[in-house]
Give the backbone structure.
Amino acid sequence: MKLNNIDCVCENCDFRDIVHECLDDDEIKGLCRNKKEFSYQKGEVIHHEGEKITSFKYLKSGLVKVFRRTNSGDEQIVTITRPFEFVSNMSVFSGNSYRYSVSALEDSVVCNIDPDYIRDLLMKNGTFSIMLLTRIAEINERIIEQTLDLRQKNLIGRIAYSLLYFSSEIYNSRIFDLPVSRKEIADYIGMSTANVIRTLSDFRKEGIIRIYGKTIEISDIQKLEILSKRG
Amino acid sequence: MKLNNIDCVCENCDFRDIVHECLDDDEIKGLCRNKKEFSYQKGEVIHHEGEKITSFKYLKSGLVKVFRRTNSGDEQIVTITRPFEFVSNMSVFSGNSYRYSVSALEDSVVCNIDPDYIRDLLMKNGTFSIMLLTRIAEINERIIEQTLDLRQKNLIGRIAYSLLYFSSEIYNSRIFDLPVSRKEIADYIGMSTANVIRTLSDFRKEGIIRIYGKTIEISDIQKLEILSKRG
DNA sequence: CGCGGCTTTGATGTTCATCAAGTAAAGTGG
DNA sequence: CCACTTTACTTGATGAACATCAAAGCCGCG
């Protein structure tokens, strides 16, 4: 982890268009004074579940996994999330410790904002409140929907769904480098590592995908979509 | 469904202590003018997924199930929820149609508020914004946590978890009438009806519970907790 | 070069869904 | 109120889906 000691540039932040559009110049300046930006390398932990909440965090760039540890000690991945979706999504306002661990799947930049400043903004800026409420609702909705989708599918459907998720939601490309290990896919879809690998091999044998180590190329996207829906 | 044509009594509403405490008298009166209260009988549908959002709804009394229909036509139950947890939880601010169907498991009373009025309140009352944000976050958190909990358990663990949920979260009693059919439990935990029944029978044979039709009595709560945790 | 972690594949056993057949309970119409 | 119909529940038998175990290959790294 490394503190990015850059001058205050919230005015130019990519997020301004999306999240801060409802803030005036003074509020943006206040935001600048109450934020710190950190860089994390692939694999680094951003925070652990159970740690006291110190910041309202959002992901500026990179890719992270949100996860927790089960009773039996395994990892359970809640979601894999891109920039423009808050990292410390909800816990900030519904508890005093982070509910899930978060770690970087790719080199990532996280902006940490003082929760008290967010509270100030909520108190005085109604437009900001509605925006934040809407975004948090959407992020939660997506997590719930993903989980429900996965739950109703069998092994084949889950793998197909995950590949399509990486391809269309994360990388926007038919060919991409998996940001996760086979075991992490297993932790995400709730199946065993061996069966994840087996199913990927089956897809390869049937000509649906090509595998070069971590690189996946989807050759037959229609078939994959059918398997995802039916499974 | 029946419109409760009662005089405006928001001032005396049970919710005032919990949700409306941050509203002043004028705002409460405004709320009264912009709300309608409906009663639903056990089994009635409150709204269907996909219907246009007309109201911000919350449950005043009773018990409801939130569910959707899967590709294969089965019901998938998202959550079973009590009063003081909003019914139309999140969709209101993140879309223009209800994402899930909701129906009454017991006779229920639902308060429908004009979403525009909620928006007005959010615009001008910061305390209300923070309260609503916090509550919506908490409700979503709970759904996500329940789903993750269930996902990591096997059949026995899921049944035990559900029974403990009804006992401790809903009815606060060791003995209670199941508000759902065996099939609905199956839809909730994502397993087959036959196996739900079989597992309940097993629990009965082992002396963990007693079954009188829809009435369940938990005889050995420690054992049930062990099964829930380990499963 | 050798060690450890990730990946792969096959063999085996467990868990769970499905099918079928029967019983109890709850509506429904005469 | 009773016969009839329908729906919910129950149990056993079977097979499919999936986890687990084990052994071997691969790859990066000291």
Notes: Chain B has two domains: 2-148, 153-230. Chain B touches chain A at residues 68, 70-72, 74, 76, 78, 89-95, 99, 119, 122-124, 126-127, 129-130, 132-134, 136-138, 140-141, 143-145, 147-148, 151-152, 190, 229-230 (CB under 8 Å). Residues 181-183, 193-194, 197-198, 201, 213 of chain B lie near DNA strand D (CB under 10 Å from a C1').
